[in-house]
Amino acid sequence: MNETIAADEVGLAPEAPAELRYGRRIEDLPSPKGQPFVGNALQLSGRQMHQKFTAWVREFGPMFRLQVFGHTIVIVSDSATAHGVMRERPDGFRRNGGLKTIMNELNIGGVFTAEGAEWRKQRKLVMSGLNAEVIRNFFPRMVTLTEHMLERWNKALDEGRAIDLRRDLKAMALDTIVGIAMGHDIDAVNQDGDPLQRDIDNMFQRLGHRTTASFPYWRYFKLPVDRAAERSFTDIDRRVAEFIRNTRERMEQQRDLQKKPANMLEAMITASEDPESGFTDEELVANAILSVIGGEDTTANSIGWMLCQLSQNPAAAAALTAEVDYVLRDAPLPREWEQMKAFPYLEAAHSETQRLKAVAPYLGLTANADCVVADTFIPKNTAIIVATAGEGGDEAHFPAPEQFKPERWIDELREAGQEDPSRKLFPFGGGARLCPGRFLALTEIKVVVAMIMRNFELEPDPKAPPAKELLNFFMAPSSVPVRLKKRVPSAGNSR
């Protein structure tokens, strides 16, 4: 992480432009004590680095500075400042250069690392493939994938076999994102050791390791795991190129798919074939790979963390079960698109889970020009880290912040005097660079969690190791120590 967030040339400007009004400079901000030469670098390395940010926020407040190998980094966590910074992207702030370098080294880029006009062009490409119409067209396939998972779990319980929720959730998320992104069925749920899932996991581990490493050794020598990651990307690239080729051939034979694309790749190919689009096949491949890599891990992690919280909070689990029973009636899972609007408690449970276990706990930016942030003069090229958990752990904004209380997010259930918490967190980022896959993620989370609560009871698994927070680019649970127990749901007739 230290090399990642400090890779840009950063320094304190001797004089600020006269037109900028501010009350302090970066050197006026509090800072944790570091070590000679490396500064705070060694304190940041490792897969629990995000926890260090959280501890420092509690100690030094919502804005402080770090020193990493002679570079200055500013950390912000209060929601107003964070939203203000994110609203200024991409013109005022760009992605952190170190992160982009690492992602490009692994040939992962696309819209995530693009800037300026290039970002606007690629954003249009990606949004054409992840809009509500495309997701609605894919919804029946998502329902079928969820039905297959229900059958798999019921069979396992009937046969007395243990269910590995972490593995199954990741496999289903991969099936879903490959289905909507590529229009292909790889059936990772029922095929242990699918090569694509193995390659994606390999890529994520390398990405997570490199973004939290204190020194970029791989630029000077490569370990066997680094060479394996390069082979994984080659395999992913070849597989995606094959998906694109097959999709183009199918679209040539079925011309109506251009008018009503059923998946992201069909929509992106349609958009790219506009003579004025300027899209290249390389951009198609990069964004297809990015959607698969990002969509698989974030959704599975979000569901995994939510199940952990619900299993430990029976009252919240009971309230969610009552809502699901009411909406689904006699059905074992959601099968109607309109039902996606009927789960306010489920949405609240997701928001509360993200407050406690944000899957993307920080966001790295770099100032494009001299500016003022929270009355502080920020010189051009200064690295800024936004703690996306925001004020989620602040008791002033979230009373009893350690408790899992989805009711905080529902107007009619909120305690008197509590303000709307919806702008205190930003799990999908903010501003123009808001995550383009958020609608897909929320739809999949609703379908899968509703299926689970309708058909199973959740119990903490005392034999499983506790879930630890592991920063693997996204923040993942080391395990999902939850057991499923069959329930016999009654038709919901009241809430």
Main attributes of the structure:
three-stranded mixed β-sheet, 495 residues, disordered N terminus, five-stranded mixed β-sheet, alpha+beta, globular
SSE diagram, text form:
Elements lengths: L1 H4 L18 E2 L15 H4 L4 H12 L2 E6 L2 E6 L2 H9 L5 E3 L1 H9 L10 H14 L2 H27 L6 H18 L12 H17 L12 H30 L10 H9 L8 H32 L1 H15 L15 H13 L5 E6 L3 E3 L2 E3 L4 E5 L50 H18 E5 L8 E4 L1 E4 L4 E5 L9
Parallel strand pairs: 1-7, 3-8
Antiparallel strand pairs: 2-3, 4-5, 5-8, 6-7, 9-12, 10-11
Helix pairs in contact: 6-11, 7-8, 7-15, 8-12, 9-10, 10-12, 12-14, 12-15, 13-14, 13-15
Judged by helices, strands and strand pairing, the structural class is alpha+beta
Distance between the termini: 47 Å
Helix and strand pattern: HEHHEEHEHHHHHHHHHHEEEEHEEEE
Total count of strands:
12
Which descriptor suits the 3D outline? globular
- Kindly estimate the percentage of residues that lie in beta strands according to DSSP: 5-15%
Uncertain residue segments: 1-14
Rg, alpha carbons: 23 Å
Q: Give the biggest sheet.
A: 5 strands, mixed
Count of discrete alpha- or pi-helical segments spanning 4 or more residues: 15
Estimate the helix proportion, in percent.
40-55%
* Average of the residue pLDDT scores: 84
- The strand line-up of the biggest sheet is 2-3-8-5-4
